[in-house]
Every structure is written in C-alpha cells, then in structure tokens.
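A quick aside before the break. I want you to see a complete sequence-to-structure record at least once, exactly as it would be stored in a machine-readable document. Don't worry about memorizing anything.
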Amino acid sequence: MFFLVGNYSAFSQEIADAIIAKDTIKREEINPLAPSKAAFYSAVLPGLGQAYNKKYWKIPIVYGAIGTSLYFYISNNKKYHKYRDAYKQRLAGEKDEFGYLDDNRLIQAQRFYQRNRDLSLLVTVGFYILNIVDANVDAHLLQFNVSDKLSFQPDIYQNDINYKTNVGLTLNYKF
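That is the input. The structure line, written in tokens, reads:
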C-alpha cells in the first residue's frame, strides 16, 4: 500500500512539471542610455533626436517652430537697427528716411522692435529646449512596456437587489 502511494506522488510531481508552461513572450532589453542619447542628438542638431526615435513626422514641426521664431527674430532685429540708425542720424544732424516721425516716435519704435526681438529670441530658445525634452521623453516612452495582458474597461451592470443600473470600472490582468 505504501509503495503505491509513493509512486503516485512521484508521478504527480512529473505531471506537474510537464504542465508548467514556459513564458514564450520575448522581452526586449531596455537601453537606459537611449533617452540621453536622443536628447544629445537633438541638442547637437534639432530634429536628430526625433529621427533617432524614428518619429520622422515631428522633424518638420521642430524646424517649422524654430525657423519661424528665428525669422521673427531676424526681422525684428533688422527693423530695430533701422530705427536706431535713423535716430542716431537725426542726433548727428543728418537727414534720415523717417523724416515724417518725431524723436519720440523713433524711440518708441526702437523699444517696440527691441522688445519683440528679445521675445522672439526667448521663443526660439524655448522651442530648442522643447525639441530636446521631446526627444528625451519620447525615447523614455518607447521603452514603456504596453502589454495586452492589462486591460481597463468601463462596466455598466444591473444591481440584483433593487434593479438599478450601476456604473463601475474593471481592471483585468491576464496571466
């Protein structure tokens, strides 16, 4: 009798080992330096970090934003220098191209274009930094594991006691 029970337990151990399935999902290795590499590439050349992350559609947005703000910086800088040079010519007693404006208007125009030039420079630097941050965050999110095993679903069900509708959320994890 003892012999039969002992053999039965030995067979159950072999069966249990045979039933256990191995994990067939291949895990991709996480590269901890990828976000810093993408940020470095974007710092060297704007848009290069987006190309490293294979988000090619973001590159025209990066160049459009930085290019537009640079255009406004250059335009406001030219106009600022034009009004400043005209004011300097007027102080020197020479005739300038803005003869129809008085001195106060020339000073106001200088201040206006100087303020817009400085603001355009800040926007350009802001877009440049945003380009670097975007490449870094995107590289982090590329390594984020999104699995079909986890689901989050809204659920509407009827209460069995008073037959009122209840609303709930279910969080399911499949093993």
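Two observations worth writing down. Helices lie at 2-19, 34-44, 48-52, 59-91, 103-142. Residues 157 and 166 are 5 Å apart (CA to CA). We'll return to this after the break.
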